[in-house]
Design brief:
By secondary structure, the protein is α/β, with parallel strands linked by helices. Helices cover 23% and strands 29% of the residues. The protein has a 16-stranded mixed β-sheet with strand order 2-3-5-7-10-13-16-19-23-27-30-34-38-41-43-42, with helices on one face. Strands 1-4-6-8-11-14-17-20-24-28-31-35-39 form a 13-stranded mixed β-sheet, with no helix packed on it.
């Protein structure tokens, strides 16, 4: 295969670094440097500057739409490719990753703001650590009251009543004017600083020290006589039970327990337990547990509220409805599972998902399975922070098998999942949605708008650090974006397989958006639809980087550094940009009848770049 040397821009960027500095770069950073080098080599072409100006003007025109600052910065300087803005940093802990995610979403809070509030009205907590947790949860409740103070009861009930219909219907905006006015009125009444405080307080109690102290302090306690006021829906042995105005506060023993009615707080020491009701705060320290609830806003979720599940051990089953399993809608939800081979199933807006709030699902270990319908698995809607972070294990992620494609394509479904940031067009800019998997041979299956996808001022990232992974998607999947969105899929190592159908895949951008697929190393295989592998249309910037290995490409139409049509708004006085870079000396395989040529392709003021070094 013919090879092309470094462009002038690449030499300038990489040559400025010492050998030690180059070696210290992560593969992800090297990929971004390589792409920036190609863009710098094109800086003499006025079309590039025209395209940057069009992006900056478009962003300036969206300032009234609750725009996320990170997304605004990326779109305002679309060719900068700042590594700090494109992916989670190289952190040593999951808390470090979450801190970076909160920075991207604008959800960070100074530590001095994360203070406990007045204790819950609980007489004589079972232990000192339980008292500390009660203080934290009381402070969360106080922060939520501040966040929702300006939202009327009538509006809250109207939103709750309308959730099934509008979560089902949303494709790109709120098509019902009454619903639109309601949602935007409530969104404008929220105190987001208070929501950020609530999230910070919940994350502050996820460290192992609290769980270890609870075990030490409670393990020698004996069961108490069953209180007469305790409902028969609660079964098993209990070490502590107190009634509060918000429901029971219970400490369950080491055997199997059933929690069948709503409660304020449950701490459970062990046993295979069943949770079949909405419980605000759960700390379960051991056992193969089942969490079952079809209620909207349950299982570590917040619907005009906050909720948390912290499960320390066991092979657990989580089965939920809408707004579940680390999700927030005008609220905050956290589900934190420390170990075990777990199963998660849910409906819309679940598994690390949020709109006008925050939702985090964190799983630290085990071979896990996740299944959802739409707005799942790292989804950030308007003013939302949504993250699914799975540290290790061979995992399966499935999203999108319920809602038919908005394009009418048979056997295609909507997903908006697996690292998706989505806004409501012309009303509210999107948030930040991230799916991060730290290790393991994983499988990702999703419908339309998924796997590192950004839509209307939303930022979506799918990040996989290690393993031989398989990605399967539909339209707008695998590092893609549309309508002022920013999306990226970054796979740091492994022999991976990418398959997507229909259109707009694998580094494809449409309509003033930025999209990227960056695979750092490995023998990889790509199969995509039309518009893929570094392709842009309608003033889109599509970027593709493959860092090494013997790779096979089976894409044929509008691919390999493709720059297509620009007709929206008369072309806006600029073209598109598509960049494809494959590095490394291993032999790569391209379609025989579509073997691309090295160099720059230019037509009608539009730019396409193909480089195989």
């Amino acid at each position: 295969m013919a090879r092309l040397g470094l462009t002038a821009g690449s030499v300038l960027l990489l040559g400025a670094l010492s050998a030690a500095q180059c070696a210290a770069l992560s593969c992800q950073e090297r990929g971004l440097f390589a792409l920036r080098g190609e863009l710098a080599g094109l800086s003499e072409h006025h079309q590039i500057n025209d395209l940057s100006d069009v992006f900056a003007k478009a962003v300036a025109g969206q300032e009234d739409h609750l725009m996320n600052p990170t997304v605004g910065a990326l779109l305002s300087e679309p060719l900068a490719l700042d590594p700090n803005a494109w992916a989670l940093a190289r952190q040593g802990s999951v808390h470090g990753q979450i801190d970076t995610l909160r920075r991207l979403a604008g959800w960070r809070v100074a530590p001095m703001q994360q203070r406990a509030g007045d204790p819950l009205s609980v007489e004589r907590p079972a232990s000192k650590t339980m008292g500390i947790l009660l203080d934290h949860f009381a402070a969360v409740d106080k922060a939520m009251a501040e966040a929702l103070r300006q939202v009327s009861t009538t509006d809250r009930l109207a939103v709750i009543d309308g959730i099934p219909g509008w979560l089902d219907r949303i494709a790109s905006n709120l098509d019902d004017e009454v619903v639109r006015e309601l949602v935007m009125r409530v969104a404008g009444s929220i105190d987001y600083a208070a929501l950020r405080r609530a999230l910070g307080l919940l994350l502050a109690v996820t460290g192992p020290e609290y769980r270890e102290r609870l075990v030490r302090e409670l393990r020698d306690d004996r069961p108490i006589p069953r209180p007469s006021w305790l409902s028969p829906s609660f079964q098993g042995s209990f070490l502590y039970a107190r009634q509060t105005s918000d429901g029971p506060v219970l400490v369950g023993g080491a055997g199997p327990n059933t929690y069948g009615e709503p409660a304020e707080l449950v701490i459970d020491l062990g046993g295979d337990d069943l949770y079949s009701a909405s419980i605000d705060w759960v700390v379960d320290l051991a056992g193969n547990d089942m969490y079952l609830s079809s209620k909207d806003g349950a299982l570590g979720a917040g619907l005009f509220s906050a909720g948390m599940i912290l499960d320390a051990a066991g092979n657990d089953v989580y089965s939920g409805g809408r707004i579940a399993q680390g999700a927030g809608l005008f609220g905050v939800g956290v589900l934190w599972d420390v170990s075990g081979d777990d199963i998660y199933t849910a409906q819309e807006l679940a598994q690390g998902a949020a709109m006008f709030g925050a939702g985090l699902l964190v799983d630290l270990a085990g071979d896990d399975r996740f299944a959802g319908t739409k707005f799942n698995q790292g989804f950030g809607g308007p003013r939302g922070l949504g993250g699914l972070l799975d540290v290790a294990g061979r995992d399966l992620y499935v999203a999108g098998a319920k809602h038919a494609s908005s394009y009418g394509t048979p056997e295609n479904y909507q997903a908006f999942s697996q690292g998706a940031g989505m806004g409501l067009r012309h009303d509210a800019g999107g948030g930040v949605g991230v799916l991060w998997d730290g290790a393991g041979d994983d499988r990702y299956l999703a419908g339309n708008f998924s796997q590192g996808m950004g839509y209307y001022l939303g930022l979506g990232l799918l990040l996989d650090d290690a393993g031989n992974d398989a990605y399967t998607g539909s339209r707008y999947a695998q590092g893609t974006a549309a309508h002022l969105g920013v999306g990226a899929l970054i796979d740091r190592q492994g022999n991976d397989r990418y398959a997507a159908k229909t259109a707009a895949n694998q580094g494809a951008a449409w309509d003033l958006s930025i999209a990227m697929l960056l695979d750092c190393m490995g023998d990889d295989h790509y199969l995509g639809g039309e518009l893929a592998l570094g392709a842009g249309e309608q003033n889109g910037i599509g970027l593709f980087y493959e860092g090494g290995g013997s790779d096979r490409y089976d894409n044929r139409a509008k691919a390999f550094g493709y720059s297509g049509a620009a007709t929206y708004d008369g072309g806006r006085g600029a073209g598109n940009l598509g960049v494809f870079v494959d590095e490394g000396t291993d032999l790569d395989f391209y379609p025989r009848d579509h073997a691309p040529q090295n160099g720059i392709r230019r037509a009608s003021g539009e730019l396409g770049v193909f480089v195989d070094r």
